[in-house]
Specification:
single chain, alpha/beta, Aspartate Aminotransferase, domain 1, Aspartate Aminotransferase, domain 2, 2 domains, five-stranded mixed beta sheet, three-stranded antiparallel beta sheet, 12 strands, 14% strand, globular
Length: 410
Amino acid sequence: MPLTQSIRSSLIPTAAGRPADDPIFLLNAEATRRAQAGERVINATLGALMEDDGTLAVMPSVVEALQRIPAKKAAAYAPILGAKPFLEAVVRDTFGTSPVAAMAIASATPGGTGALYHALTSFLEPGQALLTTHWFWSPYQTLASHARRAVETFETFDARGRFDVGGFQTALDRLVQRQGRALVVLNFPCHNPTGYSLDADEWHEVAEVVRRAGERAPVTLLVDLAYARFGASGTDGWIAQAERVLETSTLLVAWTASKSFAQYGARVGALVAAHADPAERARIQNALAFSCRGTWSNCNHGGQLAIAELLTDATQVARVDVDRARLVKLLDERVQVWNREAARAGLRHPRYEGGFFVSVFAPDSEAAAERLRAAGVFVVPLPGALRVALCSTPSTEVPRLVAALREAIR
């Protein structure tokens, strides 16, 4: 029987109007089509590290580790919470020799995205909002909406161009007063989309704000470490402040192999949770296991086993370090060219020392992005800024990219 307009949609109203794809992936698809048609395109949209020849950068040590996992082990179900060697290795990788490692548990997740979903559904009630910077990775909003939660923000930078600690404190106090709890999500170091990394003083101030708020209500700080391995020296100051946070609050870490091991498709990640009270840690672990079963059930077993080996076997750790150092050097070269050329061109952007992205301030970002698309340059427009993925832009193309940005931002 042919379909007619009289047939009603079975979708619930909140699902009926959802877009088919992420806007960033749509921009990437257009850039790819135009490049394949022979146009000289700069595609600075997608958060994946590319070689200078435009192919995806991979780490041979990681590929070989995945291939070494016996087929029947990889094919078997992983434990619901995750493979024990993987979870233990991730906690050590996250906290190293810090005493906080003894106060932490972990749950395997499908990438960092799964870790964020875990946090939303276990540390906020439906209808409540997480708190993050006003420039943030757009899937935070998608995840929150899908989980029946919301996103509230505060200004990312103050008048000096530093992290707006005062604005953060005001927003957190307001949220605690209204909700009776708070989940703070901070994507530092190498913030997506601005590229900014907090320094040691800023992390100290953040930890103190969280500690004081935790005296009044349950407060959870989630540090999204997606790009941390590409940060400059000294950008991991959050670890030194972890114990201060744990005096009153819960500390979560979104850990992912997608960026740090260049394995975006393996979907290997974890939510690491630290708390000073062993009984509360046990409750958190149980809650996360329940959430695993109620969503993805369990995660990529072969990927967990391979990453566990790469985190614990001394020979493999050394190989990974060499492979990753090459990729960090590849990206650092682009960062250096960017900082030099952007300064010459007078582009305004936050402090940028490393990471996949940088954002250029642009009053009319949508119009500027359209002008850039017409010129074959693809970036992601944000309110008041343009996100530039240097991770996918060869060093030789950075001067052209900067010139096009200067021309487009009027």
